[in-house]
Design goal:
Elements (H helix, E strand, L loop, with lengths): L27 E4 L3 H11 L5 E4 L6 E5 L5 E5 L5 H13 L4 E10 L9 E10 L1 H5 L5 E3 L2 H8 L4 E8 L8 H8 L2 E5 L2 H11 L2 E10 L8 H21 L2
Parallel strand pairs: 1-4, 1-5, 5-10, 6-8, 8-9
Antiparallel strand pairs: 2-3, 3-4, 5-9, 6-7, 6-10
Helix pairs in contact: 1-7, 2-6, 4-7
Bound molecules: 1-O-phosphono-alpha-D-ribofuranose (R1P) and uracil (URA).
The site of uracil has 9 residues, from strand 5, strand 9 and strand 10.
Protein backbone atom coordinates (compact mmCIF):
# COMPACT_ATOMS: atom_id res chain seq x y z
CA UNK A 1 0.00 0.00 0.00
CA UNK A 2 1.37 3.48 -0.81
CA UNK A 3 2.86 5.18 2.21
CA UNK A 4 3.61 1.95 4.08
CA UNK A 5 6.60 -0.32 4.35
CA UNK A 6 6.47 -4.08 4.66
CA UNK A 7 6.27 -5.31 8.24
CA UNK A 8 8.97 -7.59 9.65
CA UNK A 9 8.87 -10.99 7.99
CA UNK A 10 9.98 -12.74 11.15
CA UNK A 11 8.95 -11.58 14.63
CA UNK A 12 12.08 -10.73 16.57
CA UNK A 13 14.06 -10.12 13.39
CA UNK A 14 12.87 -6.63 12.45
CA UNK A 15 13.76 -4.32 9.66
CA UNK A 16 15.88 -1.54 11.15
CA UNK A 17 13.58 1.33 12.05
CA UNK A 18 15.42 3.20 14.78
CA UNK A 19 18.83 2.80 13.16
CA UNK A 20 19.09 4.17 9.63
CA UNK A 21 22.52 3.02 8.46
CA UNK A 22 23.90 4.81 5.45
CA UNK A 23 26.60 2.17 4.88
CA UNK A 24 27.32 -1.48 5.63
CA UNK A 25 28.20 -2.25 9.23
CA UNK A 26 30.92 -4.45 10.70
CA UNK A 27 29.98 -7.82 12.20
CA UNK A 28 31.53 -6.69 15.51
CA UNK A 29 30.39 -3.69 17.54
CA UNK A 30 31.14 -1.63 20.61
CA UNK A 31 28.04 -0.53 22.49
CA UNK A 32 28.41 2.58 24.67
CA UNK A 33 25.22 4.00 26.16
CA UNK A 34 26.33 7.60 25.69
CA UNK A 35 26.39 8.96 22.10
CA UNK A 36 29.23 11.28 23.10
CA UNK A 37 31.30 8.25 24.09
CA UNK A 38 30.55 6.70 20.69
CA UNK A 39 31.99 9.80 18.99
CA UNK A 40 35.02 9.94 21.28
CA UNK A 41 35.75 6.26 20.73
CA UNK A 42 35.35 6.60 16.97
CA UNK A 43 38.14 9.17 17.08
CA UNK A 44 40.40 6.89 19.13
CA UNK A 45 39.80 3.33 17.92
CA UNK A 46 38.85 3.84 14.27
CA UNK A 47 41.09 4.96 11.42
CA UNK A 48 40.70 7.88 9.05
CA UNK A 49 38.02 6.03 7.06
CA UNK A 50 35.55 6.31 10.00
CA UNK A 51 32.15 7.68 9.19
CA UNK A 52 28.98 8.39 11.06
CA UNK A 53 26.25 6.09 9.76
CA UNK A 54 23.40 6.90 12.14
CA UNK A 55 22.12 9.89 14.05
CA UNK A 56 18.45 8.93 14.00
CA UNK A 57 16.91 9.11 17.50
CA UNK A 58 20.18 10.56 18.82
CA UNK A 59 21.68 7.08 18.62
CA UNK A 60 25.01 8.11 17.15
CA UNK A 61 26.73 5.28 15.27
CA UNK A 62 30.15 5.16 13.59
CA UNK A 63 31.89 2.57 11.48
CA UNK A 64 35.36 2.21 10.03
CA UNK A 65 38.57 0.23 10.25
CA UNK A 66 40.03 -0.52 13.67
CA UNK A 67 43.75 -0.56 14.45
CA UNK A 68 43.83 -4.36 13.88
CA UNK A 69 42.87 -3.70 10.24
CA UNK A 70 39.36 -5.16 10.49
CA UNK A 71 36.03 -3.33 10.31
CA UNK A 72 34.52 -2.17 13.60
CA UNK A 73 31.21 -0.45 14.34
CA UNK A 74 30.49 1.71 17.39
CA UNK A 75 26.81 2.23 18.15
CA UNK A 76 25.34 4.05 21.15
CA UNK A 77 22.43 2.29 22.82
CA UNK A 78 20.93 5.20 24.73
CA UNK A 79 20.04 4.75 28.39
CA UNK A 80 18.15 1.79 29.82
CA UNK A 81 17.25 -1.74 28.79
CA UNK A 82 14.38 -0.91 26.41
CA UNK A 83 16.51 1.37 24.23
CA UNK A 84 19.49 -0.98 24.36
CA UNK A 85 17.31 -3.94 23.36
CA UNK A 86 15.93 -2.05 20.34
CA UNK A 87 19.41 -1.16 19.18
CA UNK A 88 20.91 -4.64 19.49
CA UNK A 89 17.84 -6.25 17.93
CA UNK A 90 18.30 -4.03 14.88
CA UNK A 91 22.06 -4.59 14.82
CA UNK A 92 21.38 -8.32 14.81
CA UNK A 93 19.21 -7.86 11.74
CA UNK A 94 22.06 -5.86 10.20
CA UNK A 95 24.48 -8.77 10.66
CA UNK A 96 26.29 -8.07 13.94
CA UNK A 97 27.76 -11.27 15.43
CA UNK A 98 29.94 -10.03 18.32
CA UNK A 99 29.27 -7.13 20.69
CA UNK A 100 30.80 -5.56 23.77
CA UNK A 101 29.00 -3.05 25.98
CA UNK A 102 31.45 -0.32 26.97
CA UNK A 103 29.60 1.50 29.70
CA UNK A 104 29.63 3.24 33.04
CA UNK A 105 28.24 1.90 36.29
CA UNK A 106 27.75 2.46 40.01
CA UNK A 107 29.84 0.38 42.43
CA UNK A 108 28.17 -1.94 44.91
CA UNK A 109 31.44 -3.38 46.23
CA UNK A 110 33.31 -0.93 48.49
CA UNK A 111 36.63 -2.23 47.14
CA UNK A 112 35.98 -0.60 43.76
CA UNK A 113 37.49 2.86 43.27
CA UNK A 114 36.07 5.54 41.00
CA UNK A 115 37.54 5.02 37.55
CA UNK A 116 38.09 1.27 37.98
CA UNK A 117 37.02 -0.96 35.10
CA UNK A 118 34.91 -4.06 35.75
CA UNK A 119 34.50 -6.89 33.24
CA UNK A 120 31.14 -8.61 33.65
CA UNK A 121 31.63 -12.37 33.66
CA UNK A 122 27.93 -12.72 34.46
CA UNK A 123 24.94 -10.45 34.97
CA UNK A 124 22.01 -10.57 37.39
CA UNK A 125 18.77 -9.50 35.71
CA UNK A 126 16.98 -7.05 37.98
CA UNK A 127 15.55 -5.13 35.03
CA UNK A 128 12.26 -5.47 33.24
CA UNK A 129 13.56 -5.74 29.68
CA UNK A 130 15.68 -8.86 30.01
CA UNK A 131 12.93 -10.57 31.99
CA UNK A 132 10.33 -9.59 29.36
CA UNK A 133 12.62 -11.17 26.78
CA UNK A 134 12.60 -14.42 28.75
CA UNK A 135 16.21 -14.10 29.83
CA UNK A 136 17.48 -15.93 32.91
CA UNK A 137 17.89 -14.38 36.38
CA UNK A 138 21.62 -14.77 35.92
CA UNK A 139 23.33 -14.93 32.52
CA UNK A 140 26.97 -15.82 31.84
CA UNK A 141 28.60 -13.65 29.20
CA UNK A 142 30.76 -14.90 26.33
CA UNK A 143 33.80 -16.66 27.79
CA UNK A 144 36.30 -15.58 25.12
CA UNK A 145 35.33 -11.91 25.28
CA UNK A 146 35.21 -11.96 29.09
CA UNK A 147 38.61 -13.65 29.23
CA UNK A 148 40.09 -11.01 26.95
CA UNK A 149 38.52 -8.19 29.00
CA UNK A 150 39.66 -9.77 32.27
CA UNK A 151 43.25 -9.61 31.09
CA UNK A 152 42.97 -5.86 30.64
CA UNK A 153 41.03 -4.69 33.72
CA UNK A 154 41.42 -4.85 37.49
CA UNK A 155 38.09 -6.51 38.38
CA UNK A 156 36.06 -9.30 36.79
CA UNK A 157 32.86 -10.70 38.25
CA UNK A 158 29.15 -10.32 38.65
CA UNK A 159 27.33 -7.17 37.50
CA UNK A 160 23.64 -6.43 38.05
CA UNK A 161 21.34 -4.49 35.73
CA UNK A 162 18.31 -2.62 37.06
CA UNK A 163 15.87 -0.05 35.73
CA UNK A 164 16.59 2.80 38.15
CA UNK A 165 19.56 5.12 38.49
CA UNK A 166 17.74 7.03 41.23
CA UNK A 167 16.64 4.20 43.50
CA UNK A 168 13.72 4.71 45.86
CA UNK A 169 14.68 1.86 48.21
CA UNK A 170 18.07 0.68 49.49
CA UNK A 171 16.99 -2.94 49.96
CA UNK A 172 17.63 -4.15 46.38
CA UNK A 173 21.21 -2.88 46.43
CA UNK A 174 21.82 -4.69 49.71
CA UNK A 175 20.50 -7.91 48.16
CA UNK A 176 22.64 -7.52 45.02
CA UNK A 177 25.71 -6.88 47.17
CA UNK A 178 24.91 -9.98 49.24
CA UNK A 179 24.63 -11.96 45.99
CA UNK A 180 28.16 -10.88 45.10
CA UNK A 181 27.45 -8.20 42.52
CA UNK A 182 30.33 -5.77 42.10
CA UNK A 183 28.52 -3.02 40.19
CA UNK A 184 25.16 -1.96 38.76
CA UNK A 185 24.26 -0.57 35.36
CA UNK A 186 21.07 -0.39 33.31
CA UNK A 187 21.84 -2.24 30.05
CA UNK A 188 24.10 -5.29 30.42
CA UNK A 189 21.27 -7.74 31.21
CA UNK A 190 18.99 -6.56 28.40
CA UNK A 191 21.84 -6.69 25.88
CA UNK A 192 22.80 -10.18 27.10
CA UNK A 193 19.21 -11.34 26.62
CA UNK A 194 18.98 -9.99 23.06
CA UNK A 195 22.42 -11.38 22.25
CA UNK A 196 21.41 -14.83 23.49
CA UNK A 197 18.31 -14.82 21.28
CA UNK A 198 20.45 -14.13 18.21
CA UNK A 199 23.57 -16.15 19.03
CA UNK A 200 25.64 -12.97 19.30
CA UNK A 201 28.81 -13.35 21.39
CA UNK A 202 28.43 -10.66 24.06
CA UNK A 203 30.74 -9.14 26.67
CA UNK A 204 30.48 -6.09 28.88
CA UNK A 205 32.99 -3.81 30.56
CA UNK A 206 31.94 -0.88 32.72
CA UNK A 207 33.81 2.02 34.30
CA UNK A 208 32.91 2.92 37.88
CA UNK A 209 31.74 6.53 37.97
CA UNK A 210 30.02 6.41 41.38
CA UNK A 211 31.60 4.48 44.24
CA UNK A 212 29.82 2.59 47.01
CA UNK A 213 30.30 5.52 49.41
CA UNK A 214 28.52 7.86 46.99
CA UNK A 215 31.55 9.66 45.54
CA UNK A 216 30.96 10.54 41.89
CA UNK A 217 33.71 11.20 39.35
CA UNK A 218 33.72 14.66 37.85
CA UNK A 219 32.75 14.91 34.17
CA UNK A 220 36.31 14.94 32.87
CA UNK A 221 37.38 11.83 34.77
CA UNK A 222 34.08 10.04 34.06
CA UNK A 223 34.55 10.69 30.34
CA UNK A 224 38.12 9.38 30.50
CA UNK A 225 36.99 6.28 32.42
CA UNK A 226 34.26 5.56 29.89
CA UNK A 227 36.76 5.90 27.07
CA UNK A 228 39.13 3.52 28.86
CA UNK A 229 36.28 0.99 28.96
CA UNK A 230 35.83 1.53 25.22
CA UNK A 231 39.48 0.95 24.46
CA UNK A 232 39.43 -2.22 26.58
CA UNK A 233 36.38 -3.38 24.63
CA UNK A 234 38.04 -2.76 21.28
CA UNK A 235 41.16 -4.62 22.38
CA UNK A 236 39.03 -7.54 23.59
CA UNK A 237 37.24 -7.82 20.24
CA UNK A 238 40.67 -8.06 18.60
CA UNK A 239 42.13 -10.50 21.14
CA UNK A 240 39.08 -12.78 21.21
CA UNK A 241 39.06 -12.70 17.40
O1 LIG B 1 27.36 5.42 30.47
P1 LIG B 1 26.35 4.44 29.92
O2 LIG B 1 26.94 3.44 29.01
O3 LIG B 1 25.14 5.15 29.34
O4 LIG B 1 25.80 3.58 31.19
C1 LIG B 1 25.28 4.10 32.40
O5 LIG B 1 25.03 5.49 32.39
C2 LIG B 1 23.62 5.75 32.31
C3 LIG B 1 23.13 6.35 33.60
O6 LIG B 1 23.88 7.46 33.96
C4 LIG B 1 22.97 4.40 32.08
O7 LIG B 1 22.85 4.18 30.70
C5 LIG B 1 23.94 3.50 32.76
O8 LIG B 1 23.86 2.14 32.49
O1 LIG C 1 23.65 3.18 36.55
C1 LIG C 1 24.44 4.10 36.61
C2 LIG C 1 25.51 4.19 35.72
C3 LIG C 1 26.30 5.26 35.76
N1 LIG C 1 26.09 6.20 36.69
C4 LIG C 1 25.08 6.13 37.56
O2 LIG C 1 24.90 6.98 38.41
N2 LIG C 1 24.29 5.07 37.50
Amino acid sequence: MPGTISSPAVPGDPQPVHLRPTTALAPRVLLPGDPGRALALAQVVLGDDRRMFNHHRGLWGYTGTAHDGAPLTIQSTGMGGPSAAIVLEELAALGVRRAVRVGTAEALDAALAPGDLVAAAAVLAADGTSRALGGPERAELDAALTGALAGAVRHTGLVVSSDLVYAVDAAPARAWRAAGALARDLETAALAAVAARHGIAFGSVVAIVLDAAGTRLDDERATAAGEAAGEAGAAALTAAG
